[in-house]
């Protein structure tokens, strides 16, 4: 859960009031971005950098005023054409420290997201082996960065050269995200973040969505805990981002697979938690939109209406929404509720109903 700024009446007297280490942090980043450091020097700088940010673990919101500048300072050398591998990996390691304190959901908002950045970031990811333990921080941040870039509102086909011997950019991203979802190593939410945002793009879902959903289901196995964790996280995020008519046709097969693989009764509480989270998202897809139509109005204004006595016309913003009343509950929703109630018996899990 993201930390929130306390109310004025609840401020701890010993709590920090602002980000006090801005100058020291920026000086460290300048040294790292310049390059030419020995491994020992990098270790000392990284240790001091971690110690500085650890002070803000309980108050990460204090970073927000300077977060954009910190992120940009660490990313700028990476975008340079003459950036060496050492500078790339070092900058990404330091950026991971910032991300661990503030949370990736906040940090990604400050990553560059121009269309021209897609190919360079993708090329960097293709150079990094997904299974490399040493380069894991680099892979993590590049996946998050590419995930943000995958949300740009332009068709990715614009980046294709048209050469028959060159793979389309969309296909390259598709292959990279599948390779990282099944990489042997530590599970990470960056691969899920990229996969869910890429596969739900309007220009991608018709090409890869159905095949990708079938592929994800084929990768679920309690024997492959890391891959299963990544897959469940991706499915949960996909059911959240995709339109209902796109994911509902896969809901029954996914729900059946969760029960068949006995993911709700496994020994890995992370997998159990993600299975329940996915189960919850599946149930939400089948619930009808139920809004008070009188509260959501969209005004239709024209210049000529400004002088009319009747005022502007209005229509419901959600014309298909149902008002409060009885609705037929699909059988799968009852199954989802049963699973969530069973999850309440597990003291290791947090189930939100």
Explain how this protein is built.
- By secondary structure, this protein is an all-alpha fold.
- It has helices at 22-34, 39-54, 64-79, 85-102, 104-107, 118-127, 136-149, 169-181, 189-199, 205-218, 225-241, 244-260, 269-285, 331-343; strands at 297-300, 313-316.
- It is globular.
- The two termini are 16 Å apart.
- One of its GO terms (cellular component) is lateral plasma membrane.
- Residues 271-352 form the Tubulin-folding cofactor D ARM repeats domain.
- This is Tubulin-folding cofactor D ARM repeats domain-containing protein.
- GO terms for molecular function: beta-tubulin binding; GTPase activator activity.
Descriptors:
353 residues, mainly alpha, two-stranded antiparallel sheet, 14 helices, 55% helix, 2% strand, TBCD, Tubulin-folding cofactor D ARM repeats domain-containing protein, beta-tubulin binding, GTPase activator activity
What topology does this entry show?
Elements lengths: L21 H13 L4 H16 L9 H16 L5 H18 L1 H4 L10 H10 L8 H14 L19 H13 L7 H11 L5 H14 L6 H17 L2 H17 L8 H17 L11 E4 L12 E4 L14 H13 L10
Antiparallel strand pairs: 1-2
Q: How are the strands ordered across the major sheet?
A: 1-2
Helix content: 40-55%
**Number of beta strands:** 2
SS element count, helices: 14
Indicate the overall shape: globular
* Largest sheet: number of strands, sense, barrel closure: 2 strands, antiparallel
Oligomeric category: single chain
Residue share in β-strands:
under 5%
- Which stretches are poorly predicted, pLDDT < 50 over at least 5 residues? none
Q: Which structural class fits the helix and strand makeup? A: mainly alpha
Compressed to H and E, one letter per element, the order equals HHHHHHHHHHHHHEEH
Please state the CA-atom Rg, rounded to the nearest Å: 24 Å
Arithmetic mean pLDDT: 85
InterPro entries: ARM_TBCD_2nd, TBCD
GO molecular function: beta-tubulin binding; GTPase activator activity
Pfam families: ARM_TBCD, ARM_TBCD_2nd
Domain Tubulin-folding cofactor D ARM repeats: 271-352
